[in-house]
């Protein structure tokens, strides 16, 4: 099926914006995800935290079907992402994704980077695509740089353009895969501020991050992953401020106090 009908079992069962059930993913003998189950409500911000290699980014990529799970189910809105017959192009129009690297086309201007997908995928006119792109660039504070090329921008500015580009498709879900990890410390705050604004506006967000301050302040829920499983999840203040699991405690001690014994 390409899209679930209003009477489908999947849609009836999935009140969540995203529902992940018993998800498994392996690369050869390396099992990266070992039965992950997470539901995300509409408008909820969920931050995935954990050490590198714990499966966070792989989970995010499975939601958008950039990786194919070995088992389990994922629903995103009205779409069952793991159905072999799902219309991936239609599903991905509902999802915006921002990566560690900015993935902007170097030969295009900022404005052109933000209009190319709406024009080609949504078949918008150039005028409509540019109007929406300028609107989103204004939201991230970069409308005045619409004619620049990516190489003329700082890393933080390029990442803000990447966010604006994703928003031109008017997604229902935003996925962020460590969006500040490649940035200079001085530019991290600008990107996090845009993400905070999106959260306050009610955007459903699944965020892989090492920014514990952002997770504590913005996330409705924090999920701590380790070695492909969910170790602990709950309100940000509880998981980050008073974790119950020893593995979570050890991880946060190392992240929040890296010079401690």
From TrEMBL:
<keyword id="KW-0813">Transport</keyword>
<dbReference type="Pfam" id="PF00005">
    <property type="entry name" value="ABC_tran"/>
</dbReference>
<dbReference type="InterPro" id="IPR027417">
    <property type="entry name" value="P-loop_NTPase"/>
</dbReference>
<keyword id="KW-0029">Amino-acid transport</keyword>
<keyword id="KW-1003">Cell membrane</keyword>
<dbReference type="GO" id="GO:0005524">
    <property type="term" value="F:ATP binding"/>
</dbReference>
<dbReference type="InterPro" id="IPR003593">
    <property type="entry name" value="AAA+_ATPase"/>
</dbReference>
<dbReference type="InterPro" id="IPR003439">
    <property type="entry name" value="ABC_transporter-like_ATP-bd"/>
</dbReference>
<keyword id="KW-0547">Nucleotide-binding</keyword>
<keyword id="KW-0472">Membrane</keyword>
<feature type="domain" description="ABC transporter">
    <location>
        <begin position="18"/>
        <end position="252"/>
    </location>
</feature>
<dbReference type="InterPro" id="IPR050086">
    <property type="entry name" value="MetN_ABC_transporter-like"/>
</dbReference>
<dbReference type="InterPro" id="IPR030679">
    <property type="entry name" value="ABC_ATPase_HisP-typ"/>
</dbReference>
<dbReference type="InterPro" id="IPR017871">
    <property type="entry name" value="ABC_transporter-like_CS"/>
</dbReference>
<comment type="similarity">
    <text>Belongs to the ABC transporter superfamily.</text>
</comment>
<keyword id="KW-0067">ATP-binding</keyword>
<protein>
    <submittedName>
        <fullName>Amino acid ABC transporter ATP-binding protein</fullName>
    </submittedName>
</protein>
């Amino acid at each position: 099926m390409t899209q679930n009908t209003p009477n489908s079992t999947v849609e009836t069962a999935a009140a969540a914006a995203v529902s992940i059930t018993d998800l498994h993913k392996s690369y050869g003998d390396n099992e990266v995800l070992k039965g992950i189950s997470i539901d995300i409500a509409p408008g909820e911000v969920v931050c995935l935290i954990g050490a590198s290699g714990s499966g966070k980014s792989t989970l995010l990529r499975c939601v958008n079907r950039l990786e194919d799970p070995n088992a389990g189910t994922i629903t995103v809105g009205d779409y069952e992402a793991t159905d072999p017959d799902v219309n991936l192009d239609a599903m991905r129009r509902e999802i915006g994704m921002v990566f560690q690297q900015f993935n902007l086309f170097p030969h295009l201007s900022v404005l052109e980077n933000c209009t190319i997908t709406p024009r080609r995928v949504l078949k918008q006119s150039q005028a409509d695509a540019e109007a929406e792109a300028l609107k989103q660039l204004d939201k991230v504070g970069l409308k005045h740089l619409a004619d620049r090329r990516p190489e003329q921008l700082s890393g933080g500015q390029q990442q803000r353009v990447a966010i604006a580009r994703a928003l031109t498709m008017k997604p229902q879900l935003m996925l962020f895969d460590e969006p500040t990890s490649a940035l200079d410390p001085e530019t991290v705050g600008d990107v996090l501020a845009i993400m905070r604004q999106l959260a306050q506006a009610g955007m459903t967000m699944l965020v892989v991050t090492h920014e514990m301050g952002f997770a504590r302040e913005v996330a409705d829920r924090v999920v701590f992953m380790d070695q492909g499983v969910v170790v602990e999840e709950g309100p940000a203040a509880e998981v980050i401020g008073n974790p119950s699991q020893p593995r979570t405690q050890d991880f946060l001690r190392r992240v929040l106090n890296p010079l401690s014994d």
